[in-house]
């Protein structure tokens, strides 16, 4: 199992990340589609090739082809939206927040999977990308769709753990002696 390969790749000092990675992928109250779509979208948002490869392999075992594509779509659309909306929020001139974005976001309206599942994936990616506006927006939609705070929290924990694994492995690669 690729989660196991990823856990094995983590160094000893990242024991908590290793344990949490196992926990968030094996004891979740989310459906398989919700869980593995969140894992895949977060892996893509982590930008770490090793994390993406390992977690995409497991996600492929649990997701339909449509859900796999939709999770990739969530990572892609939120990469754009998180930069745009975080920027308009952070600018001192509040007028930017009132301007029409003019960016295509059709996948959010028609993700080809359950809309709430897609929103969950968008929320998790927004957590990694640090966009408060998007976090608030997706959390609100999820709560209106009947998601409990605990289920929303699960997606946030997945985002945190996948991100920690990616950063740990990147740090280890940067610290490794160069081979000539």
Architecture overview:
It is a single chain. By secondary structure, the protein is mostly helical. The chain has one domain: AhpD-like (Up-down Bundle). The chain has 9 helices and no strands. The protein has helices spanning 2-9, 15-26, 32-46, 49-62, 65-90, 106-109, 115-129, 132-144, 149-175. Helix 1 packs antiparallel against helix 2 (15-26). The protein is globular and about 50 Å long. It starts with a helix and ends in a 5-residue tail after the last helix. The model has no long low-confidence stretch (mean pLDDT 95).
Quick structural gist:
It contains nine helices and no strands. With about 180 residues, it is mainly α. The model has no long low-confidence stretch (mean pLDDT about 95).
Overall number of structural domains? 1
What is the correct CATH architecture? Up-down Bundle
What coarse outline follows from CA principal-axis ratios? Answer: globular
Mind summarizing the main beta sheet? none
> Count of DSSP helices?
9
The CATH topology: AhpD-like
Question: In total, how many beta strands?
Answer: 0
- Elements, N to C (H/E): HHHHHHHHH
As a percent range, the share of helical residues equals over 70%
Average pLDDT, rounded to a whole number, is: 95
So, the CATH homologous superfamily?
AhpD-like
How much of the sequence is in beta strands? under 5%
The radius of gyration is 17 Å
Structural class label: mainly alpha
Unreliable stretches covering 5 or more consecutive residues: none
Q: What is the class in the CATH system? A: Mainly Alpha
Family: Belongs to the AhpD family.
Domain Carboxymuconolactone decarboxylase-like: 99-168
Protein name: Alkyl hydroperoxide reductase AhpD
Catalytic activity: N(6)-[(R)-dihydrolipoyl]-L-lysyl-[lipoyl-carrier protein] + a hydroperoxide = N(6)-[(R)-lipoyl]-L-lysyl-[lipoyl-carrier protein] + an alcohol + H2O
